[in-house]
Design brief:
CATH superfamily: NAD(P)-binding Rossmann-like Domain
Strand content: 15-25%
Number of helices: 9
Structural class: alpha/beta
CATH class: Alpha Beta
Order of helices and strands: EHEHEHEHEHEHHEEHH
Length: 264
């Protein structure tokens, strides 16, 4: 069985790759940093697992489409896709597509990347590593894509909300694929790292959060479950317990705006 892990070069992605290392599965490891990715591949092999590096860039739409095509040429039918890559922006950045960077990396790019895998019937399961903070997100059709409503706090919440909501629609379109959106826990990673006093305070706070390895073990247990959601649906899970979707992710207004952004 193939498991595709995005953001596999560090943090939760790296820990998950090591957690899943096994002769029973082949890991396709995705990240921009080819050097770090090779180190993870080597670590997986040392644990008796099989892995393949697939370097790719989710910071542009063209990069995401190229990555999707590359994966579609390598992944075997019945694969699991783990959407783990993501950023917590500390300042507004507009990328080459004319869109705010987190809007692309956390939402539009993974949507573009997975499209050929879904259309080519390569996937049996798709797990989106979400965030409980999406409950604080607020999507503006005109402002959010270009970061006109940028906030180093709310932009992360909003872009994670967008991908979670879009996944519910994708699940309805591909009922043969088992979908799940999951808040994996409060994990000590380098998300949101920034210089200065605020960055130092965040770093101190993160010392109290759980290690990526604990989160990876949790994800491994969830991945081992036979089924996550009924056909045509994507359920929401907080750590290892299913929860009702947050109100904002269940509202007609938010879902309509996200649908429009996907099609724009």
């Amino acid at each position: 069985m193939d498991v595709v892990i995005t953001g596999a070069s560090r943090g939760i992605g790296r820990a998950l790759a090591l957690e899943l290392a096994s002769p029973e599965r082949r890991l396709l490891l995705v990240a921009r940093d080819a050097g770090r990715l090779a180190e993870v591949e080597s670590a997986v092999r040392e644990r008796g697992g099989e892995a393949r590096c697939v370097p790719g860039d989710l910071s542009t739409l063209s990069g995401a489409e190229a990555l999707g095509a590359a994966l579609a040429g390598q992944v075997r039918p019945g694969a699991t896709l783990v959407h783990n890559a993501g950023i917590w922006p500390t300042q507004r950045e507009i990328g080459p597509d004319g869109l705010e960077r987190a809007f692309v990396v956390n939402f539009l790019a993974p949507m573009r990347m997975q499209a050929p895998l879904l259309d080519g019937q390569h996937l049996a399961r798709c797990l989106v590593v979400g965030a409980g903070l999406m409950a604080l997100g607020k999507v503006h059709a005109d402002k959010t894509p270009i970061g006109a409503d940028f906030s180093r706090w709310r932009t992360y919440c909003t872009t994670k909300l967008c991908f979670a909501v879009a996944t519910r629609d994708i699940a309805a379109r591909y009922p043969s694929v088992d979908f799940l959106v999951m808040h994996p826990g409060v994990v000590r990673t380098d998300l949101g790292v920034a210089p200065g006093l605020l960055g130092a305070l965040v770093g101190l706070t993160k010392r109290l959060w759980e290690a990526p390895e604990i989160c990876a073990a949790r994800l491994g247990r969830v991945l081992a479950r036979e089924r996550w959601s009924p056909p045509g649906e994507a359920r929401w899970m907080v750590e290892e317990a299913e929860r009702p979707w947050p109100r904002v992710a269940d509202g007609d207004a938010t879902r309509a705006v996200v649908r429009a952004l996907v099609l724009a």
